[in-house]
Amino acid sequence: MHSETVKFSHVTFFWNGNRSGCFNPEMEEYVEIPSDSGISFNVQPKMKALEIAEKARDAILSKKFEQVHVNLPNGDMVRHIGDIEATIVACKAADQAVKVPIAIGGHGLAPGFRFRKDLPSGGLANVAATMINLHGFEAPSQENIGKRILTLLFPKF
After folding, report:
1. What are 24-68's pLDDT values in tens digits?
2. Do 73 and 4 touch, CB atoms closer than 8 A?
3. Is 4 exposed, middle or buried (0-12, 13-18, 19+ CB in 10 A)?
4. Is 85 exposed, middle or buried (0-12, 13-18, 19+ CB in 10 A)?
5. CA–CA gap between residue 68 and residue 146 (Å, rounded)
6. Cβ-count burial of 73 within 10 angstroms (0-12 exposed, 13-18 middle, 19+ buried)?
7. How far, in Å, CA of 157 to CA of 149, rounded?
8. Diameter of the chain by CA atoms?
9. SS3 50
């Protein structure tokens, strides 16, 4: 579980159901990248995206884990400032850093600058269903809840 200090609780405490510590230390590894202090996020919008991605890459290549959970806080934290140009830089930095198959957000602040109505809506239930399927299991199906994100975006997929 990888993030920088400003969002570290999101990949640890909140992810584990408001529980401190690992469920199983042999299966989990917490990696906290220290956030810059004393500087506004829009001044340093790239934040620690590359460093977080490098640590996550190392965890993936180690083959110790079935899943590597990563939180890149750039888009969310910079969007809170309200600076659209800095938010674009933040999102591009996150995109350049990772290139991973699953990228999710909590409450989607960065996309709030430009809301697209041409895409189907999804939520955390869709993320859960997608991850269940990616791990080789059949996810429960309900109308738009429990559908794989790929199916929502590309019905023929």
Report:
1. 778 788 888 999 998 899 999 999 999 999 998 898 889 888 888
2. yes
3. buried
4. exposed
5. 21
6. buried
7. 10
8. 49
9. helix
Distance separating alpha carbons of residues 82 and 109, to the nearest angstrom:
10
pTM given for the model: 0.63
Distance from the first to the final alpha carbon of the chain:
29
Structure tokens given for 120? 């189907």
Query: Do 153 and 91 share a domain, yes or no?
Result: no
> CB neighbours (10 Å) of residue 60?
14
Could you tell me if 27 and 82 lie in one domain? yes
33 and 72 share a domain?
yes
CATH number at residue 48: 3.40.720.10
